[in-house]
Amino acid sequence: MSAITALALALLILMVVVGGKQGLSNFFALGLNTLLMILAVVLMAGGFSPVGVAVVIGLCVLAATIFLSTTRMDVAGPAFVASLLVMAGVLAVVIIGVRFSATAGFGPEDSETLEGFSVYIGVSFEQVLIATGLLGTLGAIAEAASAVAAGVIELGPKATPAGVKEIQTTIIGTALNTLFFGFFGGFSALFIWFTQLKYSFATIINNQIFVGELVQVLFSVIAVALTVPVTLWVVKRRQRIV
To answer: Which residues are listed as membrane-spanning (predicted)?
Structure first.
């Protein structure tokens, strides 16, 4: 048994033990999203527009993540609508950010690895970076939208402005910490490498790889910051209509 298979099996067992039937549904959503990500790569490599593929696959990922993570349609509905609105806004932010950051493609550190390979693959690296930037925010968007919708709807008429504000600040704070430590943990090896090579601070903050990763994290941070108030607005509008 490979390490990946063993870890996946352990995850499945833990999710079933903790969440029961809903945990199994969440594991199925994870597997479905994995297949969707593989499909996105295949479609991009096949000549389809990376941004168009990211938008379509993103809709499917949000639907799978949100609707399979809860059995309450009064929570899933507003969360999905809010996620779609935020995804549209984040797409605009990602397009602008990628074009101004100039981080598409490979950095000079990749030159040795790419030696002997051709980078003329018929796909725009800028569009690929936009696509990955959008897809990378979907988990944070779905998580924040579901959490806000569930919390506010559960409180119902008992929700007070102070309570709603506490929900917003708590979700944003925990999400931002998760994103920050995920970035630092995944990038720690490169930090050590930069230190060993005696890179100056100015060189690091202008390094293509570092800036590219940092920009990706900032996209997710912006997505979370947008998701919380947008979800709250959608839930309040739905409650007034109902």
So the answer is: 35-68, 80-102, 128-153, 174-194, 214-235
Contact 63, 173 (CB under 8 A): no
- Which residues touch 29 (CB under 8 Å, ≥6 apart)? 64, 65, 68, 69
In the chain, helix, strand, coil percent, each to 5? 85, 0, 15
Element (H, E) at 79: helix 73-101
Q: CB–CB of 82/223 below 8 Å?
A: no
Q: Residue 77 in contact with residue 113, Cβ under 8 Å?
A: no
State the Cα–Cα distance between residues 58 and 36, nearest whole angstrom. Answer: 9
| Per-residue pLDDT tens digits for 61-89 | 999 888 888 777 878 888 899 999 999 99
How far is residue 84's CA from residue 65's CA, in Å, rounded to a whole number? 13
Domains of the chain: 23-241 (1.20.1640)
pTM across the whole model: 0.80
- 109 — pLDDT class (breaks 50, 70, 90): low
What is the rounded CA–CA span in Å between residue 128 and residue 137?
Answer: 15
The DSSP line for 139-169 is HHHHHHHHHHHHHHHHHGGG--HHHHHHHHH
Helix (H) or strand (E) holding 88: helix 73-101
Residue with token string 């999203």: 33
The length of the chain in residues reads: 242
Residue 33 · residue 63 · CB < 8 Å: no
Q: Which of 25, 15, 139 is nearest to 72 (CA)?
A: 25
